[in-house]
Amino acid sequence: MGGFHSVPNDQRYRELAEKTGFSLEQIGNLHHRFKQLSHNGNTLRRDDFSKIPDLACNPIRFEIIEAFFDKRNFNAHGEGSVEEIGFEEFITIMSYFRPPSLHMSEEQREKLRRVKLRFLFNMHDTDNDGTITLQEYRHVVEELLSRSGALGRETAKGIADAAMLEVASISMGHMEPDEFYEGITFEHFLKILKGIEIESKMHIRFLNVDTTILCK
Amino acid sequence: MRNFGCLAQAIVIYLFVCCVCKSNGEIASGHDTPATPLLPEPVDNVEQAYPEDEKTNLPVFTMDYPRIQLPFEITLWILLACFAKIGFHVYHKITIWIPESCLLITIGLIVGGIMHAVKEDPPAVLESNVFFLYMLPPIVLENGYFMPTRPFFENAGTVLWYAVVGSLWNSIGIGLSLYAICQIEAFGVLDINLQENLLFASIISAVDPVAVINVFQDISVNEQLFIVIFGEGLFNDAVTVVLYNMFVFVADMEVVESVDVFLGVARFFVVGLGGVLFGFLFGIAAAFTSRFTSNVREIEPLFVLMYSYLAYLVAELFAISSIMAIVLCALTMRYYVEANVAQRSCTTIRHVIKMLATISETLIFFFLGVVTVTTEHEWNWGYILGTLIFAFIWRGLGILVLTQIINPFRTVPFTYQDQFGMAYGGLRGAICFALVFLLPDTIVRRKLFVTASIAIIIFTVFIQGISIRPLIEYLINIRRTHKQETISVEIHKRLMEHTVAGIEDICGQWSHHYWKDKFKRFNDKVFRRILLRDNRAESSIVALYKRMELLNAMELLDTHNADISAAPSIVSLHDEKKASYKPKKKFLASDLKNMHDILSKNMYKIRQRTAEYTSKHALPDNSRTKEILIRRHSSIRRSLRPGSFREPARSHKYLSLPPGESLDAHFPLISHGDTRPQADHPFARTRLVQSMRSTPTRPTRRLGTLQEIPLGESSMARATAVDFLHERASGRLSSASSSYSRSPFRAAVAPGASRPAPVPTPRGRPTSTSSSSARRKDPDWETEEEVEVEVDLEEQEGQHRP
């Protein structure tokens, strides 16, 4: 957890490398970036993230920032959120975006998919009840569309509703008149996103070169 | 069978006509001579126009074939090829296993055989000028226009890598191997020198986009693989052109110096980048022009076609890569043009491009078959077999090596199966054939080259084309995609992109998402301002949503088979479902409730439909939007009296009305004076409801359910008509929740009575008085559709804008 000194600790790095799968150089680079963001401190807070200029243009920045502080992303059974995170959590979140390696078996790929989709799911499911309700969905869609011109909230709501309907019909098929659809569970979520190649959409190529000099 | 008969008839008719016309030419010349024995015979033997000394009677029936010969024959050939296409689809299963190109070549072979027997010459379709100036541009335009831009730009590096370096590798490899073969005396081809070998190799190494797409269209391989194969086919033209010109030039020279090689490289850059530049410029010009065409809608499609063709021709003028020019032109202008032009023009453009491309492609493959039989061949076992084997080997090796090099740079590396797909899918096609015909006659063994190229085309198209599908389906486990176009998927894709972009910003490591974002911002600031007529950003999610809503509405209208204002049509819809239905003249509340159940259940199914518009043989369904407007308009007219168009008659409403309570309780029959004749009609009621909301939009403005859903959810409050239009906070919601029992999003609201997150604050849903706010609310969406709606209304009905 906490105590990282400014001098990189090799042993610590190696442990992290094993845990998250990054290479040592990548961890070093990310550590530099961590230091840059936290102004040489040991922990990051939400305001530190808000200071990144490019991030300000991102429509879903709040969700992204929130994801860093969400305990569910640290381990599978966490709940709630924290106020500040250390380097280990930072790296853990980053590791969700590692690309799949060439030599992965099918189950490993599947597992990676689930992990990444779980991350995405947690981003939606703000109240942590295991389902994405219509409200939450609407919120996300509104934010997403907030950048694309002056669309009304009604539009976003309509779209979210339509999307919800689609999910309902895909997951539940034909519904009886008395049934209602609680919300999207993780299994349904997986089902609707079955066609997307998550591997190609949700990863970052982590470089081995230190680019913190170029960052602001 | 009938269509085969048709085909046979067509062939017979054509040949008959040809023979008749040939003989008619002689008869015509013979006819005049006895008629005018005293006058000197005129040079052309068409009928006489002047009276002579000897009296001739006015010819009652004459025939003048040579005059119409050219267009007539062209038309007949096109018709023949199209009959063939119809014929293939008679037995549907054929086209699944045998790609159309093979079938067309086969038919061409047959017809070529017939013509050869009759000693006719085939029309010179595959002659270089005709081919490169008339046959090829439509196909390339279509490929460029319908290329999926997003995956393409994400994989641009890979595509160019394979196109450029791959072609070079193949050409040089095959050329050298063939030269080695030539050295072997036993084959008897000693007189082909190195330059000629290289020249030939450069011709046949290029993968042909036409053939590839024809084969791959039905096999849904994963997106990455598809875009790489597709892009490679299109862009290796640049390299082929350069190599071809270079080797033609060099083939005459005795000694090749290093300067020439260097010049060749320089020339390659000129060709490639020049093509890109020209295409881009013409694309921007086209987009800019389309901004001002709002008054000349009829010729809007013409601009697109003319600019693209111009780009192609200008590139040909400078001998730079015309294919790249036209592809870039189409890519650049597509987005802006489609945003600027009317819906109808957009459909026309797409339709025309697809039509021209299909004709071209059909003719090309057809004539490939014909010409195979009718040209003179020179067969040489060693050389030709060598060509086939080496082409195969070098392609496989090339893909392997190139992929190894580029995989580390790719975020999604290519597996071995993908590589096999790429190597095996490298079909050659008609471009190579046309290039071979273009060879100068100074090359001694020209006929051998022609034969060899035909051999390799036929081999790859038939053997590889037919076998690739079973291989991919059963043996090789390439990742396939099942394209689904639903709104949720689109939303999530977008979310992922933003997430990744955000994370990239956070960790300070940029890849193409960053550049894509930057480009998007630049695009918004600069290009959209200049090139778009009304410059509002529209998310692709919204566009998709609109499109799907339109399709849904069309589906529902279609099932009625009549206009929706007629009560019996609801009955017929109802009858199709098995739900309980009491046939009654007057609609009771319970019936309406049932109907709503059924309609909403229908809606679930309908929403799942995908709208395919990138399939090769399917046209985009944008035309239906117009029909919706027309239909709805006419149905409105019939049920309402004229003059009431101020009221929004959103017959589309019923789609999303949550079938909660009965209609009666919530939409009380407020007589709105003069304009509602059919009061016991649910749709009239619906319109009544609309009028109460009194958003004074024109009738067909809102083509989606965007505003209906809030109506639906807020309507559940059992309040007065006016009241229910407002959304209140949670108090209202709890009563709203109970009636959500049928709608899927009930639970979202049910536990929400005490939710901290509020309902999106009421936008002051307009009452009859405060109507203007509604209009302001969705101005963007409204105006975007205004354009088309306007046109439609004004042209169709001559209505004024409310």
TrEMBL record, chain A:
Record carries keyword ATP-binding: no
An MF annotation (GO) of this entry: protein kinase inhibitor activity
Biological classification of the source: Eukaryota, Metazoa, Chordata, Craniata, Vertebrata
Topology class, membrane: Lipid-anchor
Subcellular location: Cell projection, Lamellipodium; Cell projection, Ruffle membrane; Cytoplasm; Membrane
Main location: other
Coiled-coil residue spans: none
InterPro entries documented for this protein: CHP3, EF-hand-dom_pair, EF_Hand_1_Ca_BS, EF_hand_dom
All copies of domain EF-hand, residue ranges: 112-147
Name of protein: Calcineurin B homologous protein 3
UniProtKB/TrEMBL annotation, chain B:
Transmembrane segments: 70-88, 94-118, 130-147, 159-182, 194-213, 225-249, 261-289, 309-331, 352-375, 381-402, 423-443, 449-472
Any Pfam family: Na_H_Exchanger
Segments of this protein annotated with the region Disordered: 732-802
Entry membrane topology: Multi-pass membrane protein
Keywords annotated in UniProt: Antiport, Cell membrane, Ion transport, Membrane, Signal, Sodium, Sodium transport, Transmembrane, Transmembrane helix, Transport
Compositional bias (Low complexity): 732-748, 764-773
GO biological process, alphabetically ordered: sodium ion transport
GO terms, molecular function: antiporter activity
Biased composition regions of type Acidic residues, renumbered to the chain: 781-796
UniProt family annotation: Belongs to the monovalent cation:proton antiporter 1 (CPA1) transporter (TC 2.A.36) family.
NCBIfam families: b_cpa1
Name recorded for this polypeptide: Sodium/hydrogen exchanger
